Structure formats: C-alpha cells, structure tokens
Backbone:
C-alpha cells in the first residue's frame, strides 16, 4: 500500500472513472422547485464518495475545490478539476465520484427560467466571480430583489470552458473489453498486439475500431485515460513518482511529458495555475457578499 501526502491509500485501488455529479440520492434541494431560479450549496465528503446513476428535473452545475470529480454519462467520462465545473442538463442520467476531502459544490437551475441551454454535459469555466455569485446565492437571507440581481449576473458570466476535457469510450463490442480493463487499471501496459491476441482479433481491427469510435489511436486513447486518472491521483496528494508508477510509466519524466502533450503544461504548473485563483487561506474571495467562501 502506498502512502499519500494526505493519508494512507493505494492509488491503484481507485475505481473506474464513473463520476461525481449529484447528491447521494439524486435528490434536489427543496428550494430548487420554487421559488428560486438558482439554488446553490456545498458539502465536503470525508472519504471518496460515489453516487449511482440518476438524473434531475432541473439543470445542475457541479464543481470542486481541493480535489476532483469525475462523471460518466453513457460513453463519455468527464474529469473536473480546480477552476472548472460540469453542467449537467435536466434529465440526463449520470453517475458520480468525488475525491476525499474535496469541497463539493452544486447549483441547480430551474429550466423554465434559465435563459440559455446546454443540450449536452458541458465543462464550465468557474471564474472567481462566478463562484462568488453562486456562494452568495447559497445564503438563505437574501430578499427577492437581491437574489434576482445576483441570478441575472450569473446568467451573464456563466460560459463554457475553453477546454472540454472528455474521454470518449469506444462503445464497440469488439474493443469494449480493452476500455473497461484500462478503466479498472490504467497502468496495464499490454500492447495493442497483446490485446488483439487476447481477444482473438487482428491488430488492424483494434486499430481501426479505436480510431473510428474515439477519433484516437489506441496509444493516444490510453494516454488520455491516464491523464484523466492522473488529475484525480495528483489532487489526492500522490506525488509525481507514485502517479507515474501507478499509471504504467517507466520514468516520471515520461509521465510528465505525456501529461504536457495532453494538458499543455506540466502537472506542477497545472495545479499551480489552479491555486492561483486562491487567496492565502485557500479560498476564493467573494466580492459579492463581502466575505470569503465558508
């Protein structure tokens, strides 16, 4: 068992990427039904927390501070890290997983009164202003006029993220076994040829199936999957050497190079940029209510 900087755990035991958007029972806060357009709140799971697939009659925006969440929607896996959120349209079934200790935020939007619509799950840029506004709306002492003003600004500033970090699963019976095995263990280093032999199909079939189903080669798809899992492990406090070993890289430098190719920066710089939105206490300052997030 490998020790994390935040506690004792084995990163190899992480479950398949299968999301964290939603409340444990799929319930929506009572206020979301009426009279508010936006209802927001947060909680802190003390251990890694998973939620079974469910859906909501309202739109949901989820994001985390100090961790990651992943969500699996049919044949797509979304990984959401610091500075980003995930918009889940009303009625879309999704499962969920949040890392231990992550501050898990959610906001529910009444569809009939939301002046925009994202028809698909969409990564959202969680700017300090947007987070502050939603924190402000989590208060229970706002009068109707104050709430309406804050909600109107939320609608103005809520925008999709420039990076839609999504892993497409093949959904092809010829190669689904490969995808599921790698979701269980991204460090599995079996080659394309090994997989083809195990499944009794040709190398060319595996190559063409991955390219057709995901737009990526087998090697590119596995690297993308490893980048998704790396975000979770790094946010849980595992060091780069441990993460590189768990993900099947021979050297930490190989992992760093692969991470840079996909994310455009090194692991240290990626998490450093996310921390840049924080103040000295680790919270986003809230210019709307005049207090820090609690």
Residues:
């Amino acid at each position: 068992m490998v020790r994390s900087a935040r506690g004792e755990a084995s990163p190899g035991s992480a479950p398949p990427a299968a999301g964290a958007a939603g409340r444990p029972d799929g319930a929506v806060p009572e206020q979301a039904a009426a009279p508010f357009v936006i209802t927001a709140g947060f909680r802190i799971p003390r251990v890694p927390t998973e939620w079974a697939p469910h859906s909501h009659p309202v739109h949901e925006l989820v994001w985390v501070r100090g961790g990651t969440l992943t969500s699996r929607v049919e044949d797509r896996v979304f990984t959401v890290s610091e500075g980003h959120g995930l918009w889940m349209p009303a009625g879309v079934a999704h499962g969920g997983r949040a890392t231990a200790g992550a501050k898990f935020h959610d906001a529910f939007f009444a569809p009939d009164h939301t002046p925009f619509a994202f028809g698909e799950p969409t990564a959202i840029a969680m700017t300090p202003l947007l987070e502050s506004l939603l924190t402000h709306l989590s208060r229970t002492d706002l009068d109707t006029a104050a709430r309406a003003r804050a909600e109107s600004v939320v609608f103005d500033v809520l925008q999709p993220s420039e990076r839609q970090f999504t892993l497409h699963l093949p959904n092809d019976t010829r190669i689904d076994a490969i995808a599921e095995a790698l979701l269980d263990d991204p460090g599995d280093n079996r080659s394309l040829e090994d997989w083809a032999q195990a499944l009794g199909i040709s190398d060319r079939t595996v190559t063409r199936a991955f390219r057709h189903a995901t737009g990526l080669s087998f090697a590119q798809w596995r690297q993308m999957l490893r980048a998704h899992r790396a975000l979770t492990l790094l946010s849980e406090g595992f060091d780069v050497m441990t993460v590189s070993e768990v993900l099947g890289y021979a050297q930490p430098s190989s992992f760093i190079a692969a991470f840079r190719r996909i994310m455009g920066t090194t692991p240290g710089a990626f998490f450093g940029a996310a921390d840049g939105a924080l103040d000295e206490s680790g919270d986003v300052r809230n210019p709307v209510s005049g207090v820090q997030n609690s």
